[in-house]
Amino acid sequence: FFKVYESSHTDVGYYMLAWTLYTLILFVASLRVHKAMAITFGLLLIGFILLVVGHFGNPVFNKIAGYELIPCALGAWYMMAAIIINDLAGKTVLPTGKPFIQ
Fold first, then answer.
1. CA within 20 to 30 Å of 65's CA: 17, 40, 50, 96, which one?
2. pTM more than 0.90
3. Inter-CA distances, 69 with 4, 13, 43, Å
4. Helix, strand, coil distribution of the chain in percent, nearest 5
């Protein structure tokens, strides 16, 4: 619209690649927190990888990423609800699971 800065698909791909690397670090760290967080970050990592592939290659992967990120969002909402409800209840109402790595 304003054409201040026009970005190409590969420009966005590099941006997504940076977030993919950051998410990889968070995913590895989440393996020691609880299963809900590890699964959510795992799904987010897969979604970012699909977005990177979609921006550097076949754009159909962007649509696949969109559908794949829906369960990721649901997992994030579950974690948010578990943290709030468990804290307010003073006990575990919504379980998040034990960490994959102790």
1. 96
2. yes
3. 30, 17, 7
4. 75, 0, 25
User: Which residues fall within 8 angstroms of residue 6, CB to CB, at 6 or more apart?
Assistant: none
Q: Residue 59 — pLDDT band, cuts 50, 70, 90?
A: very high
Q: What is the distance between the alpha carbons of residues 72 and 74, in angstroms, rounded to a whole number?
A: 5
Residue 100: its H or E element:
none
Task: Tell me the per-residue pLDDT of 1-12, one tens digit each, with 9 for 90 and over.
Answer: 677 788 888 999
Which helix H or strand E contains 7, and what residues bound it? none
The residue type found at 29 is A
CB count within 10 Å of CB 33 equals: 18
